[in-house]
């Protein structure tokens, strides 16, 4: 087996890097969605959601950096242009959303899509014995599942 300096299968690592770049692209679109929601939200939930969306985009920004640095750790190159992000991302894009329920639904649907991408990576990283990526995906998945629960409780 051809291995990397980390002792991981080279071919599997290359595939993982591609998948992680897909996740990175999705997170960048999700991040930008959250900025838009933070700016444009209107109505009686303004103060609550304006702050909540800021909390979420700050968290996403940290995850974006973790994903990019995991790609580098695995020997890959993290994508960094908007054109790459928009061509690879599969999360929904929200534009001019100011109504609270629509805003929260966009976050729930984005998280649901991120979970799909992360579970795919988790399968691949498990197969590659890549514990570093495994644990990162497990943490992201558990956190996002909890966030979906809370947002769905908010939706009632
Ligand atoms: Fe702000």
Q: How is this structure best described in words?
A:
- The chain contains five helices and no strands.
- The protein is mostly helical and 156 residues long.
- The model has no long low-confidence stretch (mean pLDDT 97).
- The protein binds fe (ii) ion (FE2).
- Residues 38, 54 line the site of fe (ii) ion.
Strand and helix map with partners:
Blueprint: H1 10-40, H2 46-73, H3 82-88, H4 100-127, H5 131-155
This protein binds fe (ii) ion (FE2).
The gist of it:
It is built from 5 helices and no strands.
Rg to the nearest angstrom? 17 Å
Total beta strands: 0
What hetero molecules are in the model? fe (ii) ion
Which structural category do the helix and sheet elements fall into?
mainly alpha
List keywords for this structure.
single chain, 156 residues, mainly alpha, 76% helix, binds fe (ii) ion
